[in-house]
Amino acid sequence: MEFFRQTWVIAAKDLRAELRTKEAVNASLAFALVILVLFSFAFDPLEEQTREMSGGLLWIVFAFAGTLVLNRSFAREVPNDCLDALIAAPISGAALFMGKALANFVLVISVELVSLPVFGIFYNVHWTTQIWSLLLVLALGTWGLTVIGTIFSALTVNIRLRELMAPLLVYPMLIPVLMSAMQLTMQLIAGKSLGGENQVWLRLMVAFDVIFTALSLVLLETVLVG
Amino acid sequence: MREKLIYGLGAIAAVLLARNLYSIFMQLPDEASQGMIYRIIFFHVPAAITAMLCASVTCITSIVYLVTKNLKYDAISVAVTEVGLAFLAANLVTGSIWGRIIWGIWWTWDARLTSALVCWLLYAGYLMLRRAIEEPTARARISAVFNIFAFVDVPIVIFSIKWWRTQHPQPVFWGGGTIDPAMRLTALLNLAALMLLAVVLSLIRLRQEEVQREIDSLRRYAHAV
Question: Which of A50, A99, A132, B100 could cross-link with A11 by S-S, CB 3.0 to 4.6 Å?
């Protein structure tokens, strides 16, 4: 019970801090829109082609915009020695990680939920036909993105060239979950279901989420304290 | 003692490799459907197995480092990772050459090839991460955690040909395929040769790492004085 309360305190603190400044969310949202516009210059697709590449396009936007939020997760605790205070606070590393991850999840998925309709309008894609399955894929994929982003934000918080190293390490690590999310999103928009051939992607995504969440919960304290 | 071990194992690996090369190019016939390019499999598959084994070893030594905080295990992790990365690169390159002849293309984005490439990128990232951290214990700790994360990709590489319908061929040596006993023997012996080579290279690399650490501590001592 104590764990959930601590998690909630951390998550609420992060969300409150973000809602007061709206720095990361605004930047992330603006960046997502910029990429969506940029893509329309890069390709001039027919409707059929758009549907085929929709999954890849959307998740690249989500991954890029998401890491803007995620990379700052621990880095913004460094000024004023907030990170030391968090480490010294009587909460477990697991609760600290979970709280941060939950807050990040809320922020990233809200950016995604705003950019999804924009994508539908710009590229004339009907994404609402299987909305519940799509939301499931969105939630699972975003959780994977958030977990990796949060733990790597902690991992790289004190290293030289943080802004360069973090994306270099995060994106290859994300490939399994991004690939699954891209495939499933594409199939759902094309009108196929999550069953049959697509089940292997869904399983990979769930396994990815479970394994990395467990590893992060165990290892966060090691990362920050040693 | 370790010097003798390095030379001894190196000599055995050299003899084995010479025997295998003679067997591969002089004794074994061309394969029925692929012709002579099939010979690349004697390096492609053992290199992959050696690389995956290296990854498993570094995952274990990384965990042991986090438990014991003994920098020796960090040195083993980096030595074995570097060697494994070289073997994985050999695997990717030989696979690509084979693909050019048999498929007509250097590369295709199927699950096996993609996951192996991602694996290579992850362990290359591990080596780059190490260079970005100055302080030895922080470097050891953070890179050990990263190594454990990177290892999650290894089972995906191994099982990708079971989980997806891939263009990459199904296994012929272990896991259902049939093969001529003479070819199997050569493949096994070459696996042994490449593994010995990996051990020798890791030991050499490990010594470099130890010497490096000694130089660092001497330098710190000199600064302190």
Answer: A99
